[in-house]
Amino acid sequence: MTTLTVNDFEGDNRAAALRVLDSIEETAYDYTAQEEERARRRRERINQMKRQKEKQLRMRRLAAPVALAAVACIVLLMVGVKAIWGKHTAQTKQTAQTAQNQSPPVEQILETGQEAGQKQDTEAKTDNGKAKVPVPEADISLACADITAVFSGIQENQLAFIMEAEELQTLGGKNDAPVLFAQADENTIGTVGDCVSENVIFIDVEGSHILAQKDAHTRISPASMTKILTVLVAAEHITNADDTFEITRDITDYSFSHKCSNVGFEVGERVTVRDLFYGTILPSGADAAVGLAKYVSGSQEEFVGLMNEKLAELGLSETTHFTNCVGVYEDDHYSTAYDMAVIMKAAYDNPFCREVLSRHMYTTSPTEQHPDGIPLSNLFLRRIEDRDTHGEVLCAKTGYVDQSGSCAASLSIGNDGKRYICVSAHSTSSWRCIRDHVAFYQYFLP
To answer: What is the distance between the alpha carbons of residues 443 and 117, in angstroms, rounded to a whole number?
Structure first.
């Protein structure tokens, strides 16, 4: 193969070749500069999150000693006040006893009684007419000295840090809801009606009771149900849903190469983080899910590490493990129907994730590439909303890969006001999967 250089051209052709070469070099320079800028922003965001996490950790470490110091101060203050009052009472009794033993003559009492009474009335009242209790100044100073000594035991830099530190407010806020732990008993059944899903579980959340299960603890490929954990982990590491993120070529390439469903974002399009959340759940967009991962951690690999840390926090690390944030089938990417129910409950407990998972329709923010935004729909919620489920299905996420067929996780509020979770896998179609969920809701909900 012959390689041409600029020297191989003459006249106008050479000038044109030089312009083409300059254009290529300029484009390459711009692309490199953009990549460096994106890498710099990712590093800054990751460093900021690390600093915020370290700040929270220091706050937690200081909370216990500060609380103990505060309790000690209150105790010492109460002891000091009690001691002062006791001493004052003893002095009052002693004065009264002395006065009784050394009483003046009756004539003197009669002569000075009125004057002494007026003086005592004046001294025993404040400006608002309330009686004053005389407290020795020396005793007050002693009590204050004890309290000051306790506070001086706390380092000044610790106190300053506590006053200035701010709690990191991620999307949905801090969540202290308990992790779902449900058990079966002698009343738990296997399946209902003509359910075709091979793996299924139906849980009464408030009662922590498994009402029905069939191979619920058998390993499955969770497919796009994976994205429930994706949005939960992202929400717990993001503070601003209105920030923007640029869709890159590697994001769209990943989606197309694995034949994933997409929102339809284009390379170079700057979208809001909020759009990435809704794009991950409603149309199950891989471009949005990978975008969230890169926004949080700089790469999908780093983000998956956070996902597996969350699984350990939920107590699921022995039966669930993820290798990607999308749900693409891989040998080491697996879960169970029961574990997906636990993940759905955890996502529901996060108010921001609950809003995303319960949205029927959403339109992304206008961009240069999509001036009117992109309309999105949660097809599971829209298809089941006209069915009688004896309540309202609030949250849902579907999935499909060849290895697990059509699958879905849904959470409903029954007519009895209680929450129920249904997870199924290995159904024959998306419509059949929905009918299986409807059958369980109709059977168990009043």
So the answer is: 87
pLDDT beneath 50, residues of the chain: 106, 109-110, 124-131, 133, 135, 138, 140, 142-143, 147-151, 154, 156-157, 159-166
Classify residue 283 by its DSSP letter.
Answer: S
DSSP state of 66: H
| pTM value > 0.70 | no
Catalytic residue check, 141: no
Is residue 326 within 8 A of residue 286, CB to CB? The reply is yes
Query: What gap in Å lies between CA 248 and CA 267, rounded to an integer?
Result: 5
Query: Which residues lie below 8 Å from residue 284, measured CB to CB, with a gap of 6+?
Result: 224, 227, 261, 397, 398, 399
Residue 317 CA to residue 229 CA, distance in Å, equals 13
Spatial distance between the Cα atoms of 5 and 63, rounded to a whole number of angstroms: 70
Q: From the candidates 197, 214, 221, 227, give the one annotated as an active-site residue.
A: 227
Alpha-carbon span 326 to 289, nearest angstrom = 6
pLDDT in tens, 371-389: 999 999 999 999 999 999 9
Active-site position among 197, 221, 284, 410: 284
Active site residue 397: no
Angle between helices 11-101 and 156-164 (to 10 degrees): 120
Which residues lie closer than 8 Å to 351 by C-beta, 6 or more apart? Answer: 172, 173
What Cα–Cα distance (Å) separates residue 300 from each residue in 136, 174, 225, 340?
70, 24, 17, 21
DSSP H or E stretch at residue 274: helix 273-281
Calculated CA dihedral for residues 420, 303, 52, 243, nearest 10 degrees: -80
Phi, psi values for residue 270, rounded to 5°: -95, 115
Residues 406-415 as b or e (16 or more Cβ within 10 Å = b): bbbbbbbbbe
Q: 197, 221, 224, 297: which one is catalytic?
A: 224
Planar angle of CA 402, 315, 341, nearest 5 degrees: 45
284 is a catalytic site residue: yes
Pairing of strands 244-246, 270-272: antiparallel
